[in-house]
Amino acid sequence: MTSEAHEPEWLRQSQSLSTAEVSDALDFFGLPGSALGIKPVAGPAKLFGCAFTVRFAPIDRFKPGTVGDFIDRLTPGTVAVLDNGGREDCTVWGGIMSQLAAHKRIGGTVVHGVCRDTAEADTAGYPLYACGKFMRTGKDRVQVEAYEAPVQLGDVRVCPGDLVIGDNDGVVVVPHQRVQEVLVKALETRAIEAQILEAAMTGMHLSEARKKYGYHTLQRARTTLAG
Which InterPro entries match (predicted)? Predict the structure, then answer.
């Protein structure tokens, strides 16, 4: 993302958006992005940063495997997105990585698979999301297949540079080409929902408030309605 000094207002405001708000905006544009099965497992349940992707594969039986020494490639604020094929029998992220990533001010890690040493991530205050946790190492079980290539996160395709957002409800991914329109739409929807809530809290029936402000069409694009 841009530096804080040159950060546009819509982007600054967007950092407070929830995954639910962004998911609704993705629905409006007919975009996938809600990563099924990915949840917070350690550290603060908050992510907002561009993806650095790593794809793993089962080990080549003729040479040792590696979980990858890629952390020095990451810049502050980047979110490491690791695709281990959803495997639950071995990990590709552990305690040394969490502590070092926190020290380097990496934005967080999301694993399509499991991670371990979650207590160390908690202690370091490092955001860690995955399908779950399990203690067995991935060393000599998996190997790095590709860096900065498209990967799978739950049921969502993630490309390098895509925006990754996480909170207590899980993770959403916004294609980097569509970031501004999706986040601006999410902010607009938030404002409308705030109006609905205010109207209902001051005496209007919820059904009337929703009708007045178009609640039931907030996730429908105009082209969809026209069809």
Answer: RraA/RraA-like, RraA/RraA-like_sf
